[in-house]
Amino acid sequence: MNIGKLSIKNIFHKPLYSLLSLISLAISIGLLIGIRQMDTSIRRHFENSTGKIDMIIGAKGSPLQLVLSSALHIDNPTGNIPYRQAKKIAKNPLIKSAVPISYGDNYKGYRIVGTTQGFAPLYNAELQKGRSVQKPMEVVLGHSVAEKLKLSIGDTFLSSHGLVEEGAHQHSEPLTVVGIYKPAYKVIDRLIITALESIWEVHHHGHHDNEHDKHEEHEEEGHEEDGHKEITSMLVSFRSPSAFLTLPRQINENTNMQAVLPKYEMERLFQYTGVGVQAITWLAYTVLVISCITIFISLFKMVKERAFDLALLRTYGASNLQLVKIVAYEGFLIGLIAWMVGVLLSQMGMYYIFEILQENFKQIDIQKFPWQEALQIGVLVLFMIMLSITMAIPPILKMNISNILSNEK
Questions:
Q1: Domain boundaries, position 306
Q2: The MacB-like periplasmic core domain covers which part of the protein (predicted)?
Q3: Which of 284, 297, 339, 364 has a CA 20 to 30 Å removed from the CA of 117?
């Protein structure tokens, strides 16, 4: 007696119940894997993107916006700050390094960041080809930028005003590629790095050429005005843990700038988003429980509706164990197919979601498939299916063969 074939026939004998069980179980598995993978990917990206940055100094405004714009480069800046004033704060003995950044331009959607030689070490970025920026209008490309835009050493391009590609005013001064970074798997992979002077020169020229740009540059980009240079923000690394307690408060209370701690702001952000993640997770677990109840009902109905067939098998020498195996194989087969379909659905969903994120932000990469978590979910599904099977087999063990056969006749 081929128990496997009998189990498959039972599945097709009641296709509606089987399909309903499979689809609901696959959706719950896909949701659980997908939401965990997405949450892990976004958290890891945000944590990696802060690099060695302990504090960010920028214009007054939303602290979270300052972190998102200056550390993660996925939002608009809160404004500009005087470079001279920021450099005075950087001389504090509690500060190990202070890296200025100024931005407001892009090339095909990838942000161009004006900064100093201290920017790359914040992300442990190393050169793969070429050299570092040595003079204005030279750029070093993040690895993903060079790969996606097919740029190499010696290529030139024109930057566009603003942080989005569409409808941006194009500058006339060309930028020349002099280097490409190795993959750092951090936000720097998707940035175009140049000197602060490049940003100032480009917008200084635009300041004279276009009155409309003059107003926007005052709000968004580093530029020169009345001889005073401005930057978007300053990325600070501390020398001592005591700086966390003193420096941000001093800057916020005694200057017209604000100082924020990116790790603290990220933790607050995750607390807010974590509520949504938990809600979707519990919804997925609810669907998982309902799916297993559906499987139990399906198996129980099969035992009741096909009692005569099972009794007949007993008369031909089949044991109770073999009949239980028919029920068990059916449950396990549905669970296995649902797990594979759920994994496929999760990856299709993640690919689609991260394609949208890449199109809008060009910053976030999907992490590798979480095999460990997928296997943990598989073990949970296996346990629940075993529970469903256990609840469905008592009628087999209590089956009165003679009564069933006589009543059928």
A1: 3-46+269-408
A2: 18-185
A3: 364
